[in-house]
């Protein structure tokens, strides 16, 4: 089963691989990275970066190589860290889960006022396993989905 990120990368890859040969040239590879605001070179010279991620040692990038590159990107690490920090800000008692009352209190502190029905709908959208609490994994997954989805629609 594909992760949320892999799913969006597959869609972007297929849309960019116009000749459908299963390979992208470096310019198209860079175009996808740019779409998701992922650093192109990861602080390495082009030749080293390309060789490091060109796992089949040919002139083109496969979707698997694109996924590998993104999974090891500074951008993805930063997004995950940012979302974890946001989670911890809401998780006032630091028990590793967010309950609906914690969200309500956090948002009231921030001047965000929603009726119970709206708050419950948002909560259910984050509570992927419907157990009445949101874990950092669920929270991060939803925010990553939103991040990648908002960029794919621009293709």
TrEMBL record:
Gene Ontology MF terms in the entry: calcium ion binding
UniProt feature coiled coil, ranges: 69-96
UniProt keyword annotations, A-Z: Calcium, Coiled coil
Ranges where the EF-hand domain occurs: 4-39, 78-113, 114-149
Domain of life: Eukaryota
CDD domains: EFh
Protein's UniProt name: EF-hand domain-containing protein
């Amino acid at each position: 089963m594909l992760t949320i990120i892999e799913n969006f990368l597959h869609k972007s890859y297929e849309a960019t691989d116009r000749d459908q040969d299963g390979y992208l040239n470096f310019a198209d590879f860079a175009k996808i990275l740019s779409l998701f605001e992922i650093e192109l070179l990861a602080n390495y010279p082009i030749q080293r970066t390309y060789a490091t991620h060109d796992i089949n040692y040919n002139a083109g990038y496969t979707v698997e190589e694109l996924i590998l590159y993104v999974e090891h990107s500074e951008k993805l690490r930063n997004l995950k860290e940012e979302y974890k920090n946001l989670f911890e800000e809401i998780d006032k008692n630091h028990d590793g889960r967010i309950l609906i009352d914690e969200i309500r209190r956090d948002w009231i502190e921030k001047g965000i006022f929603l009726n119970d029905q709206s708050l419950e709908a948002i909560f259910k959208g984050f509570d992927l396993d419907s157990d009445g609490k949101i874990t950092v994994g669920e929270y991060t997954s939803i925010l990553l989905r939103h991040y990648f989805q908002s960029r794919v629609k621009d293709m």
